Amino acid sequence: MNRYPTPAVRHLSRRIVLSSKNRIILSLFAVLFVLMLASLASAQEKIATFPILPTGYSSIRVFDRNEKFVGRIMPNERYWVPLNRIPLFLRQAVVAVEDSRFYEHGGVDIRGIARALVKDVVKRRMAEGGSTITQQLIKNKYLSGEKTFNRKIKEGMLAIEFERKYTKDQILEMYLNTINYGNGAWGIAQAARLYFDKNPEELTEAECSLLAGIPKAPGRYNPLGPPEKVALRRSVVLKRMVDVKVITPEHRQSLMAHKVPVMKPSEAPYYVNFVRGKLVERFGARIVEQGGLDVITAMDVNLQKKAEQTLREGVRKINGTLQGALICLDPATGDVLAAVGGVDYAQSPYNRAFSARRQPGSSIKPLIYAAAIEKGITAGSLWSDAPVAYPRGDGSEWIPQNYEKHSFGELSLRQALAHSNNVITVKLLENIGVPYFVDTARKMGLPLRNHDLSLALGTEDVTLSDLVTAYAPLVNGGAHPEARTIIRIFEKHRGAWTQIAPAVTPAISPATAYVTTEMLKDVMVYGTAKGLKKFSQERPSAGKTGTTNDYRDAWFIGYTPQLITGVWVGYDKPKPGGKGFTGGAISAPIWGKFMRTALAGKPAVDFTKPETVVTAVIDPTTGYLATPECPKKQTEYFTVGTQPMQYCPKHGGAAFQPMSSAQRPAVPAPKPAAPAPLSEPPVFDRQSSP
């Protein structure tokens, strides 16, 4: 066999070898072409992980009733800003101070690592990371913040891979859109809006120099941080820009001399957040993202600050784990002048003033007494608090009891309200009828779902806001104003104002409102809020305490002719506050302290008596007109036509003529027939306390 190839075979072999080489070369070209396409694809890859920030956005600005700036309502969503909308100066500043060799290294800067290692050895700990911008991005996106060598190795490997996949500009864009800028701002879009109320492309060089220094320590170097530390960090940023020859020393000096105004955090966060909800109700959920509104609220920002301070100090003085709420209204318009939903918004933004539903205890009683006055029952009528049993649907009996189970015998309706008598209130509700009371309460602004006698003891959960507005008719001549937090709105895109007028509707008669108020004055003189007696002597005022019998909720709702304020104190997770945790001891002092501040400088004026109210001197032990022989005499207020016309029969009244035959006799205290059954057992088998 011939071991040597023939010339033809050798020629064919050469052709085959050449063909193989060509195929290899072609394959290499193909691979390079694919890599080139991949590189182009990566350069064009969509890297935004949030919606692109709309142009022309302006935040929702909130002002108080005197058009003093209060704060802003910020969008919920995060937005992405393309690199071409981020100022070049900011990009240069960030690169200079964070990673000056960013455009030279491949993800890991060996020089930087060496420099950091020297410092780590000197300080005997991992003080310097030597991280590039790419490594910082990797750490923020994929790794924890622990300072270990293993994490640094992973970080470096991922950074190198990242740089193969993305361009430098893409990496810088991702970095600027994802880093922490402090105070809850993530990414340049939120930072520019939070600190300067701008879109990124609107930032000045001076503002950029502040923002560029934040990533090193967001909690310390953000523009709202300690001024001296913020200024020092800004100086470092500008010096680095000089060092890398991005700006001149003269330019640095000029920028350092430029004071940068920063938007202050919103004041009154509980109030502003509630306004946010009202805007969403009116315009829809997207309004917060769209922005472009100026909102004039009913708030008095100075009063709001006092309310926040007074509530916080008053509640924490009792117990650091307690919560509270306070609302102050203008009773004529329903304007919410101040609203505080808790002792610390940063710790708990839940708004207890408008959202929390709790049992009002005895603070609901004035509405029952007002309904009784409206129906013709008088403040001087006498009622017995002898025990009475009411059958339940399950065959058992409910026997309401007074606070600490005391009985007082026969009391006037005025005294019963001042002392917060439970038994008499239940009997009064039974007499006027639960449906009648529920309808009256609804007109006054307090919607109720229960329809049984347990309502007399405040067993149905209500909000502080609803309860305070339900008291407003008592000082507002019987008219119920809806709580108003927004007075007018300017829509920038339309260039138009929308006025929101007060909504006031009749609820009870002016006479009923006045008589009930005169009764409630006694609560602050000798009743359950007698600690406010000095205040009531300085300013005509009225109010009512409320406490559930297990001391879970403490209330006080009180008013003067100018203002009505309600205070609630309790635990978020209801639990007893201990003996003495009553509305009179806990909430009334907070109310008094706030109202003294709120009314400072205002004249002390009394409630206006309508012509439909008359006075008569009566014997409070009998309810009849007093004679000279009556040992006790008292001036009482009556709706015209309900005042007594007979003189006291116990003290020689027969010798005196009736006041006028044209006047009908006083409505006597009713004697209940067989006890009316409860439609269902009370919510709890407890009774209300003062």
From TrEMBL:
Domain Penicillin-binding protein transpeptidase: residue ranges = 325-595
Q: Where in the cell is it found?
A: Membrane
Q: List the keywords (alphabetical).
A: Carboxypeptidase, Cell shape, Cell wall biogenesis/degradation, Glycosyltransferase, Hydrolase, Membrane, Multifunctional enzyme, Peptidoglycan synthesis, Protease, Transferase, Transmembrane, Transmembrane helix
An example Gene Ontology molecular-function term: serine-type D-Ala-D-Ala carboxypeptidase activity
What GO terms describe the biological role, i.e. biological process, of this protein? Answer: cell wall organization; peptidoglycan biosynthetic process; proteolysis; regulation of cell shape
Where does the record place Pro residues bias? 667-680
Q: Where is the Glycosyl transferase family domain?
A: 69-241
> Which domain of life does the protein's organism represent?
Bacteria
Gene Ontology annotations for the cellular component aspect, listed alphabetically: membrane; outer membrane-bounded periplasmic space
Q: In which pathway does it act?
A: Cell wall biogenesis; peptidoglycan biosynthesis
Known catalytic reactions? Preferential cleavage: (Ac)2-L-Lys-D-Ala-|-D-Ala. Also transpeptidation of peptidyl-alanyl moieties that are N-acyl substituents of D-alanine; [GlcNAc-(1->4)-Mur2Ac(oyl-L-Ala-gamma-D-Glu-L-Lys-D-Ala-D-Ala)](n)-di-trans,octa-cis-undecaprenyl diphosphate + beta-D-GlcNAc-(1->4)-Mur2Ac(oyl-L-Ala-gamma-D-Glu-L-Lys-D-Ala-D-Ala)-di-trans,octa-cis-undecaprenyl diphosphate = [GlcNAc-(1->4)-Mur2Ac(oyl-L-Ala-gamma-D-Glu-L-Lys-D-Ala-D-Ala)](n+1)-di-trans,octa-cis-undecaprenyl diphosphate + di-trans,octa-cis-undecaprenyl diphosphate + H(+)
Q: Where is this region: Disordered?
A: 653-690
Q: Which family does it belong to?
A: In the N-terminal section; belongs to the glycosyltransferase 51 family.
Q: Which NCBIfam families match?
A: PBP_1a_fam
Q: What is this protein called?
A: PBP1A family penicillin-binding protein
The organism encoding this protein is: Geomesophilobacter sediminis
